[in-house]
Specification:
Blueprint: H1 2-11, E1 23-27, E2 30-31, E3 35-39, E4 49-57, E5 64-74, E6 80-85, E7 88-90, E8 99-101, E9 111-116, E10 124-132, E11 139-147, E12 160-165, E13 172-179, E14 186-192, E15 197-202, E16 208-214, E17 221-229, E18 232-241
Parallel strand pairs: 3-11
Antiparallel strand pairs: 1-2, 1-4, 4-9, 5-8, 5-10, 6-7, 6-9, 10-11, 12-13, 13-16, 14-15, 14-17, 17-18
Length: 243
Amino acid sequence: MKKLIISLGLLFCFVASSYAQSLKIYYGGALAPDTLRIDITSIPSGEFGEYFLDFAADGATDSIPVTLTQETQILPDSTLLEWCGAGSCMTQDQVSNVFKVVSEPYEGAQFYLHLFPNDNHDPVCVRYILKKVDDPSDNASVVIIFENKVKVAPVSKIDVKLDVYPNPVATNLNVRYVFSKPQKDATIVIKNIVGSVVKEIPLTNELQGRLSINVGNFSDGIYFYSLLLNGKVSMTKKLIVKH
């Protein structure tokens, strides 16, 4: 039933529309189509895909202040989408800080997206809307569908209760976990914003337990912690370290 709901949702995903506007959105060095489909099948378990967006304003003789808005249509359980740019990183629908574009796209990108798919690599549908601050009617948008072109076999469900606190954390991160079935291979993995593993902690108790993780030597910023069961990601969530 869940698969059917997601499939029907994609049929009614955002209807992209294009108008003669000065703002442009680029992906992969080329002008992005109204609807951009990205295959996420090859993202390894526990890893994320990284994607870059850039922007320009046709005919601009000076830098133009703009904002970018995210609108999510489909985001399955245990899937995390982070978008970063204009001095901040976000994991929910909102309007970005004001940033500036010029007549040509920059070398590199102004925004990047990190997608952590769930174990089944279920599809995600999201829209990004670029608007001029002083003239919101001048805008551009792109609908991005992250899709699984080769169906991944569903993972058998294990009920997990995982409490991680405080968040934000300064020094000691407390973890409490309960599994519905004994787990001989369970690990907490913490990664930084670029995906590098900064700490791995095996969970030695097969059913439930508590532990404290010292993050006092971590730099301030955004991290992600994942629970791996038998080498597969059960969940991924954001962690903020702030001393």
